[in-house]
Amino acid sequence: MSSGYNVAVVGATGAVGIEMIQTLEKRNFPVKNLRLFASERSVGKKLRFRDAEVPVELLTADVFRGIDFALFSAGATRSKEFAPAAVRAGCVVIDNSSAFRLEPDVPLVVPEVNAEDARHHKGLIANPNCSTAIMLVAVYPLHRVNPVRRIVVSTYQAASGAGAKAMAELEEQTAKLLRGETNLRAEALPQRIAFNLFPHVDVFLDNGYTKEEMKFVHEARKIMHHPTLKITATCVRVPVYRAHSEAINIEFERPISAAEARTILEKAPGVKVVDDPANKKYPMPIDASGQYDCLVGRIRQDISRDDGRGLDLFVSGDQLLKGAALNAVQIAELLI
Fold first, then answer.
1. SS in 3 state form for 236-293?
2. Which of 121, 143, 244, 294 is catalytic?
3. Global confidence as pTM
């Protein structure tokens, strides 16, 4: 076998797990041996990697010996159950769930923002929430030049954020409605998603925000090393297949022009500026789907302010890639 790393994907048959496998291949990550793990109902399935069919194995606590990197995307419960065993076996775990993100000794990493944090891991590195990662790819380059004081963000989150079952539910409901059927089931999502949207992503908390909205607050502060950052979010599920979009209003310490922001973002890693409204060019989820870069546009001065310290912009990013699988593989790349 060629030299390289032994890599495991945990939750391999889910929407993010499949993207992880494809991203390892597309980015030519030096995989010596790939092992795929999932729950009992997926055991025996085979998934293609390079020119081979790789069988899905049962996830247990003793499968991680000899594995260098384990990319986890099996949900917080399974991460809490199995990630510690992987770390004890000498494996570096890159976890896509919310299980460890806010643990003080676990780095929470977006490589374009805080790559150095990844090097201080103790066997476990957390991937941020997809919406947070997409926002920070756009906001952080500006923050480096002119510190951000406050962010107001409204999201337009695709079905993919709730997993493969939600994506299937969007398809099924849309097809039924177009056939004139009304017997729609909402099981993966809390409301009908076809031809609808709803301000309900994750569970509601006592403060009136959802857990998803509070992830913006806690995760952005940790990743940016900015504990005093003021941030408020409203998260909305929309009938889009994949790729999240966000309308972001930013307050800076000093005045900043739209032209200055555009120049900064054109040089920023992971960003593609799409900002030509006169020719109907602006970020859209159909264009962001399948792309590694986050699309940023509608960059303009906030006219509600007299001090020039506000900007508005619109971002679209692939939730399954930059929001999950790509970010995880990029973290592994940092460590090699």
1. EECCCCCCEEEEEEEEECCCCCHHHHHHHHHCCCCEEECCEHHHCECCCHHHHCCCCC
2. 244
3. 0.95
Active-site annotation holder among 91, 121, 130, 235: 130
Cα–Cα distances in angstroms (integers) from residue 242 to residues 31, 177, 207, 328, in the given order: 27, 20, 29, 18
Residues of the chain with pLDDT under 50: 1-2
Domains and their CATH numbers in the chain? 5-127+324-335 (3.40.50.720), 132-319 (3.30.360.10)
Map residue 43 onto helix, strand or coil: coil
Active-site annotation holds for 244? yes
For 173-219, how does the pLDDT look when each residue is reduced to its tens digit (9 = 90+)?
999 999 999 999 999 999 999 999 999 999 999 999 999 999 999 99
Cβ atoms within 10 Å of 18's Cβ, excluding its own: 20
The token pair that represents 128 in the structure block? 């941020």
Residue type, 154: S
